[in-house]
Design a protein that fits this description.
The protein has one domain. The protein is built from 10 helices and no strands. Helix 6 packs antiparallel against helix 9 and helix 7 runs antiparallel to helix 8.
Length: 192
């Protein structure tokens, strides 16, 4: 029963829409109706400014870290992996925003950093390097999440974490399908 409550709590933590709240209270805008309409760090950064974007990023990262810390308190790697999936599901399909949320990346990095700092840091380096070279957040996000299972294998993480890493990769790529279509059409905006 404790597992169920921990996973449910992780989903609710993930459902806290930091990007929406920051944009609403920092700039008085509904981020769902501006730019890409995505409730995520990049859209907040583009439409509410870098400070708001950083605040949204910290909140989204923090959700992932908090859920993993909670799960570690009550169980082992299986509960941690399930709670990681739950917090990511909450971020992407938040209860408090009609199940329309972000694309997993910032909260996913928080989850991975809390599970394995070396894997999380390397994924973040891949993301930052790719953004620096291409100026495309979407390409950076796809490359970083795709690297996560490979890095987990390289660091010999337990199988529940590898399953979580694959979950993150699949769902983050699926959530980025509109970005992939815009990249192929040459209409995807670059980070300014």
């Amino acid at each position: 029963m404790q597992y169920l409550w921990t996973v449910l709590a992780s989903y609710l933590i993930g459902s806290i829409p930091f990007s929406y709240l920051v944009a609403r209270y920092w700039k008085g805008i509904d981020i769902r109706n501006i730019g890409s309409g995505n409730v995520g760090t990049t859209n907040v950064w583009r439409n509410a400014g870098p400070v708001a974007g950083i605040l949204a990023l910290v909140g989204d990262l923090g959700k992932g870290v908090l859920a993993i810390m909670l799960a570690r308190h009550y169980g082992g790697s299986l509960l941690v992996a399930l709670s990681g999936m739950a917090v990511l599901a909450g971020h992407s399909w938040p209860l408090f925003l009609g199940f329309k949320g972000g694309k997993l990346v910032a909260t996913g990095v928080g989850v991975i950093v809390a599970i394995s700092p070396p894997v999380g840091i390397l994924a973040a380096v891949i993301w930052l390097s790719t953004v620096g070279i291409t100026k495309y957040v979407s390409i950076a996000s796809i490359l970083a999440v795709t690297a996560i299972p490979v890095l987990m294998l390289a660091f010999h993480l337990q199988w529940p974490y590898l399953v979580l890493g694959i979950f993150i990769t699949i769902f983050a790529v699926v959530k980025h399908i509109p970005n992939i279509k815009r990249l192929l059409a040459g209409t995807e905006p670059k980070l300014r």
